[in-house]
Design a protein that fits this description.
By secondary structure, the chain is of the alpha/beta class. The chain has helices spanning about 5-10, 20-35, 45-55, 120; strands spanning about 60-65, 65-70, 75, 80-85, 85-90, 95, 100-105, 110, 110-115, 125-130, 130-135, 140, 145, 150, 155, 160-165, 170-175, 180-185. The chain has one domain (about 5-185): 3 Solenoid (UDP N-Acetylglucosamine Acyltransferase, domain 1). About 20% of the residues lie in helices and about 30% in strands. It binds acetyl coenzyme *A. The site of acetyl coenzyme *A (ACO) has 14 residues, from strand 17.
C-alpha cells in the first residue's frame, strides 16, 4: 500500500495529517525559519542551508528572505536560480525549475489543490499537481503559477499574472488568466 508521501507525489488524494508528512513539514518550517534569519552577508551559510532544504540545486543559488515552502525536498532548481523577497513555493508535488531562472518579489508557485466537492474538502484530503518551468525564465512580481502548469524555455511571466495553463518556449505571458502577450526570441 502506498504511503501518504507516495500518494502526494503521484497526484492522488492524500491525508496531510499523516505523521511522516507532518514531520517533513516541521523540518522544512524549521529550516526556512533559520534561512530567513541568516544575514545576507553570510552567503555560503545561506547557500548550504538551501541546498540541505531543496531536493536538488545547481552550484549557484540565491534566495532572499523571506522564503517559504511546504516540504523543500520536492523542489528542484537548476544553475543560477534567483528568488527575490517573499517567494512562496508550495511543493506538495514536484516543482522543477531549469537553469538561469529569476523570480521577482512575492512570486507564488502552488502545487496543492483541495477537492471542489464540499464533503471531500472538509474531510481534509488534498492533492498536488507538479509545476515545471524551463531554462532562462523570468517570473514577474506577484505572479501566481497554479498546480499542473508547465512553462517552456525563455518564458517571461508579467507581474501580477495568474498562470492557469501551460505555455511553450519564447513567450511573454500575462494577465488573469495568463495569455500570450507576445513572442520573444
Ligand atoms: C528578480 C526580479 O525579477 S526583480 C524585478 C521585478 N520586476 C517585475 O516584476 C516587472 C515585471 N515586468 C513586467 O511585467 C513587464 O511589463 C513585461 C516584462 C511583462 C513586459 O514588458 P514590455 O514588453 O516592455 O511591455 P510594455 O511596458 O511595452 O507594455 C506592453 C503592453 O503590455 C501591458 N503590460 C505590461 N505589463 C503588464 C503586466 N504586468 N500585466 C498585464 N499587462 C501588462 C502594457 O500595459 C502594454 O499594453 P498596451 O499595449 O495595451 O499599451
Amino acid at each position: 500500500m502506498p504511503s501518504e508521501f507516495e500518494k502526494m507525489l503521484s497526484g492522488q488524494h492524500y491525508n496531510p495529517f499523516d505523521a511522516e508528512l507532518m514531520a517533513l513539514r516541521k523540518n522544512a518550517r524549521q529550516l526556512t525559519e533559520q534561512l530567513n534569519q541568516i544575514s545576507m552577508s553570510e552567503i555560503p551559510k545561506r547557500t548550504r542551508l538551501i541546498k540541505s532544504l531543496f531536493g536538488s540545486t545547481g552550484k549557484h543559488i540565491y534566495i532572499e528572505s523571506n522564503f517559504r515552502c511546504d516540504y523543500g525536498v520536492n523542489i528542484h532548481v537548476g544553475e543560477n536560480f534567483y528568488a527575490n523577497f517573499d517567494c512562496v513555493i508550495l511543493d506538495v508535488a514536484e516543482v522543477r525549475i531549469g537553469d538561469n531562472c529569476l523570480m521577482a518579489p512575492q512570486v507564488g508557485i502552488y502545487t496543492p489543490g483541495h477537492p471542489l466537492d464540499r464533503k471531500e474538502r472538509v474531510s481534509g484530503l488534498e492533492f498536488g499537481l507538479p509545476v515545471t518551468i524551463g531554462d532562462d525564465c523570468w517570473i514577474g512580481g506577484h505572479a501566481v503559477i497554479n498546480p499542473g502548469v508547465t512553462l517552456g524555455d525563455n518564458v517571461v511571466v508579467a507581474s501580477g499574472a495568474v498562470v492557469t495553463k501551460s505555455f511553450g518556449d519564447n513567450v511573454v505571458i500575462g494577465g488573469n488568466p495568463a495569455r500570450v502577450m507576445k513572442q520573444i526570441s
